[in-house]
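Dear support,

We are seeing what looks like truncated structure output for some complexes. This example has two components. We would appreciate it if you could run it in full and send us the complete token output so we can diff it against ours.
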Amino acid sequence: RKEVEQDPGPFNVPEGATVAFNCTYSNSASQSFFWYRQDCRKEPKLLMSVYSSGNEDGRFTAQLNRASQYISLLIRDSKLSDSATYLCVVKGGGYNKLIFGAGTRLAVHP
Amino acid sequence: DAGITQSPRHKVTETGTPVTLRCHQTENHRYMYWYRQDPGHGLRLIHYSYGVKDTDKGEVSDGYSVSRSKTEDFLLTLESATSSQTSVYFCAISGTGDNQPQHFGDGTRLSIL
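Here is the complete output from our reference environment:
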């Protein structure tokens, strides 16, 4: 079983749609969680950290369920510019090592 | 954007040749990492560094070595490149403290023929 699992997609949605991505992780001791965004042939960029109480940044909402070892990302009012691959990331030990999911691809169309 | 520069950005070389990739940071961060990214695998950690001259292996370290003689530079070396090492290589940096994310360089596209 992979340490961080995501649905690879692609998710094809129209502009203005709400879309949700899910992610599960295997290490119950994990303490830090993030969502990264990666555009085609570019480097991953931090989208947002995920906090235990859930957090929101504009159109993006992240949720953490420690009991189920489950992380989610909700994107409201999708824009064309949201088209990218979204990486679920979990802290994987000391020295701030991170474990990356393989990513979920989102395509927003007009 | 985090001050991270990777060089070269693109390289094509032949099997059996040595290759060195450089990662340079201007953030004075303690932690540095090298990843490779391949279709279907996502990002996989090759080696990481937790200080000058302090390095350790990641999950896919075979065939790679690293060195860090200065805080700002982290070098990745393929002693004798193989075609299976064709990939996109990313360097990342992170500060100390809990819940610190990593920030990535632009990547190096390496093709081994």
